[in-house]
Amino acid sequence: MSQHKLPLSMTMGRRKRSHWPWILGGIALVIAVLCVCVLSHREDDDMLTESDPIDLDALGMQEWSDLSELTRQYMDEDIPQDVPEPTLDNSNPFLIKGKITRNQTLFVALKNHGLDIGDIHQVITSMQNVVDFKRTKPGDRYEVHLDVDKRILKFIYEISAEDISIAERNGNEFIAHKVDVHKRTERRLVKGELTSSLYQAFIDLGESGELASHFMQLFKYDIDFGTNSQRGDTFSVLVDRVTLNGEFYRYGRVWAATYQSNALGKNLEAYYFESDEEYSGYYNAEGHGLKRNILKTPVVGCKVSSPYNPRRLHPIFKTIRPHRGIDWACNTGTPVYAFADGVVTFAGWKGGNGNLLVIEHAHGYTSLYAHLHAFGRGIKKGAKVRQGQIVAQVGNTGNSTGPHLHFGVKINGEYVDPAKINASFSLELTGSRLHAFNQSRDKVRVAMSGQPGVTEIVQDSDK
Ligand SMILES: [Zn+2]
After folding, report:
1. Cα of 318 to ligand 1 centre, how many Å?
2. pTM exceeding the 0.70 threshold for the entire prediction
């Protein structure tokens, strides 16, 4: 503003030679200086004033929270599984295959197929004792077998591969039962030696690439498997495997993993430690958490619309104002992920920031997310968040020219360029936690020292 006003008043001065332009120019200059002071003060003052409470219902939060809950459940899985889409083969007129969609009840789903309402009622009533309809969720699959009159003969409802129920017509009624799936979870010790790649070594042992990549994830900050793994390196994993009717179904938790690297000349170890939420996770033999890098970007599928720039011309105020963060242009509603584990210190309205979220992390880090549309469920001052958890939705609140996320990071109170951060965090166990960890580690070590194969039957539905 000051750069703009000054030349103007000077040209006016030359033309008229009166004192007025100088007075006007002076006033403009004073106003400009005041503006800059007030605005920059507002920027620095971001965190200091109390926030107005926001109305979650007005933001349509309720509906969205359910989705985030689902996503969180998915993210909490030890090993994310790729569930293949069912082939919706509707070429057979006597067979309907479908999936429950969001906000849809089984009744509505079946009604949408134009099935007999009486049949639907009977099927659902008959299933009441075998299916816990409170557990049903979007994505559950069903299959309806019909006769020539489009009456239901058989209905199959699948909550998961382990939980399938069938209702079959018997005269004028339906009889339901659960499919007897023999589920067995065994803890298995896998040991191998590298001949070519680590990935291949897992495959050669009859394990899947999924386990190999999970293994590599555990040690990715300690070793670069691409360049540092060598023929002759040895590894071991203690993992739960779930079988259904004798067939491999999925992996459960990886309890421990070791990698003896010849290139590094050391033995890497990872032990899963079950503790309170914040401390549950993988640790090395000394009880130091395996490193978890911060997220590079808090949003996915967005473009940088304005980088970190200490001397940016502000798009609204047309002044040079530092841009102490990165702007990511995204659609309203795009999920925002927590940059690292931490505690929410602010979640609410904050002037030009619109809806602002501030999370404090270990090692003096703070992350800020501005112009949000809404906050995730349970996101309020004091809430603990995990890295990668969905904490908010991108919006266009406050001083914002379009939907975007302003993402800022401070280290010990000083703004830094989020694009240049290359930090990692790790937790350290102490006191009673360390004591408990040592005991569980020693137990696992005994199991790991044995012969490869099944070390324990964790669960067997036949027993
Ligand atoms: Zn910004």
Report:
1. 14
2. no
